[in-house]
Design a protein that fits this description.
Elements lengths: L21 H10 L1 E4 L5 H15 L9 H6 L1 E4 L6 H7 L2 H11 L3 E11 L7 E4 L7 E2 L5 E6 L10 E3 L19 H5 L9 E3 L6 E5 L4 E3 L8 E10 L3 E2 L27
This protein binds succinic acid and nickel (II) ion.
Length: 264
């Protein structure tokens, strides 16, 4: 290469990042969720799925009530324990899409491996996520939910109630209790629900207040999903308890920041 030639901005092996169409972003802002196809290839899914299953094989003994364990086998902050899973959680395209949908700079809050065991017999019931978190000044939290194998309705795909991200005053509800969210807002029993089966490598994004649930896994294979939760960089610690902030020593009102919560 001559001294005067211009080097390419990206190496040819790094695919350029794709922007989302304006209509999809507008729909996300109005309805509080969206679906995007083709983040990962089948080969990438197989690699991440194997790693996720490897790292969750003993999780049942580690955390959660018996009822909760029937709903989900999960491992929080799996990216910190596996460079392979960190590749997925901090995937540049994923982070770019989340930032575009939120419309503001973000940082990682945490990730989870979310496994439903074969024939688990328990749905993840409707809930909002944000009431579980010790946050304030966090207007646009956004979660990606990535299917690491095909997730049809009967394997436990997600459903959403459009517009519920505008409900700012709800308490947390028990995601093992089918009446939990509806007992807080009875009219939601009659609201439209949108169910989104995903092919391996597809994902949904939802706002941290969008009500969502996932069906039970009625198949003989694990449902392996990976969720990545981003929060605005303005987010402050409320003082509440949470597994991701307990023991760190944040003071109420302090911005949640640091190497455990990287900017994306
Ligand atoms: C699930 O994967 O079953 C539920 C995910 C969520 O609550 O975000
Ligand atoms: Ni949730």
């Amino acid at each position: 290469m001559s001294a005067t030639s211009t080097a390419p901005l990206l190496s040819p092996t790094v695919p350029a990042l794709r922007s989302l169409p304006a209509e999809l972003v507008a729909s996300y802002r109005e309805r509080g969720f969206c679906k995007i196809e083709g983040l990962l290839t089948p080969e990438q899914c197989a690699r991440f799925r194997a790693e996720s299953l490897r790292l969750t094989s003993d999780v049942g003994k580690l955390n959660g009530s018996a009822g909760y364990q029937r709903v989900l086998t999960q491992r929080v902050n799996i990216w910190r324990d596996s460079t392979i899973m960190a590749e997925l959680t901090l995937h540049p395209q994923l982070c770019a899409w989340a930032t575009q949908l939120a419309g503001m700079p973000l940082r990682l809050w945490h990730d989870h491996a979310l496994i439903k065991q074969p024939m688990n017999g328990a749905a993840t019931e409707f809930h909002q996520d944000q009431p579980y978190w010790p946050h304030r000044d966090s207007p646009q939290p956004i979660s990606a939910w990535i299917a690491l194998q095909d997730v049809p309705v009967e394997r436990g795909c997600m459903s959403f109630i459009p517009g519920t991200h505008h409900l700012t005053d709800l308490r947390s509800s028990d995601l093992a209790d089918p009446t939990g969210l509806v007992s807080l807002r009875p009219e939601l029993a009659w609201a439209e629900r949108v169910t989104l089966p995903l092919r391996a490598g597809d994902l949904t994004f939802h706002h941290g207040r969008t009500a969502h649930m996932a069906n039970a896994n009625a198949t003989d294979q694990h449902r392996v999903a990976h969720t990545v939760i981003f929060i605005p960089r303005t987010t402050r610690f409320s003082g509440g308890g949470h597994v991701c902030t307990n023991g760190i020593g944040f003071k109420p009102g302090e911005i949640i920041a640091g190497e455990l919560f990287p900017e994306v």
